[in-house]
Design brief:
4 strands; single chain; alpha/beta; 132 residues; disordered N terminus; 4-stranded parallel β-sheet
């Protein structure tokens, strides 16, 4: 079994398409560890309406371990955001925390959100990139 660990960050306003979907399915089929956060789950649930969609998301995400931020993560995320801002990069509070969690726990982030590329230009954030 592959020991790669992935952090999953999804945007509710932009579907995961193409290579991102393929990589996620490959990781799942390969038995890789996939981790998410309650923040991602909450954002997804806020973006869908109706009990059926809600129940499907809750059920599917129940199989994924949740990485819970602690005090240190919030402090480091604020520092990350401040450093990016001084470099002219605008980073949202949630994105800063997600990036910090990946950096601290040495996770590779799989996301369709291009803002993480800007963060990775200033920090050791590992992002999944399509091969080819």
């Amino acid at each position: 079994m592959d020991t790669s660990v992935w952090s999953l960050a999804l945007r509710r306003d932009r579907p995961i398409v193409g290579a991102h979907v393929g990589e996620l399915l490959r990781a799942i089929d390969g038995g890789e560890i996939i981790i998410t956060t309650g923040l991602v789950l909450q954002e997804l649930l806020q973006g869908f309406s109706g009990p059926r969609a809600r129940d499907q998301i809750v059920e599917r995400f129940s199989a994924l371990p949740l990485l819970v931020p602690d005090r240190r993560d919030h402090i480091e995320a604020a520092d990350l955001r401040n450093i990016c801002r001084r470099a002219g990069v605008q980073v949202g509070t949630i994105d800063a925390l997600l990036a910090e969690l990946c950096i601290r726990h040495d996770l590779t982030m799989l996301s369709t959100d291009n803002d993480f590329r800007d963060i990775a230009a200033h920090f050791a954030l590992k992002l999944w990139t399509a091969v080819g």
